[in-house]
Write a structure and sequence with these properties.
About 7% of the residues have low confidence. Helices cover 61% and strands 0% of the residues. The two termini are 21 Å apart. Helix 2 packs across helix 3 and helix 4 packs across helix 5. By secondary structure, it is mostly helical. The protein is built from 5 helices and no strands. The radius of gyration is 11 Å and the shape is globular.
C-alpha cells in the first residue's frame, strides 16, 4: 500500500497515523509493507483521513498502481 506516500504528503508519522485511526503502529507498518489486509471499516477511515477515494485505498492495498485502477 502506498500509505508511505500519503503520510509524506500529509507530513505525519506512522505513530500519528496509528493514533488518529485508533490502531497500533504495528498494523500501520504491516499495511505499508503489504503484509496485512485492511478491513473495510479501517479502509474507509484511511480514505477519509487522506481525502482520497476508498477505491484508491483498496487497489493500492492489493499492490495495484494508480494507472491500473479501472475507470468508473
Amino acid at each position: 500500500m502506498n500509505l508511505i506516500k500519503f503520510k509524506q504528503e500529509k507530513g505525519i508519522t506512522r505513530v500519528q497515523l496509528a493514533k488518529d485511526l485508533g490502531v497500533n503502529v504495528r498494523s500501520v507498518n504491516r499495511w505499508e509493507k503489504g503484509q496485512s489486509d485492511i478491513y473495510l471499516q479501517k479502509a474507509i477511515r484511511i480514505a477519509r483521513f487522506f481525502e482520497v477515494s476508498l477505491e484508491e485505498i483498496i487497489y493500492l492495498s492489493k499492490g495495484f498502481y494508480r494507472k491500473q485502477v479501472p475507470n468508473k
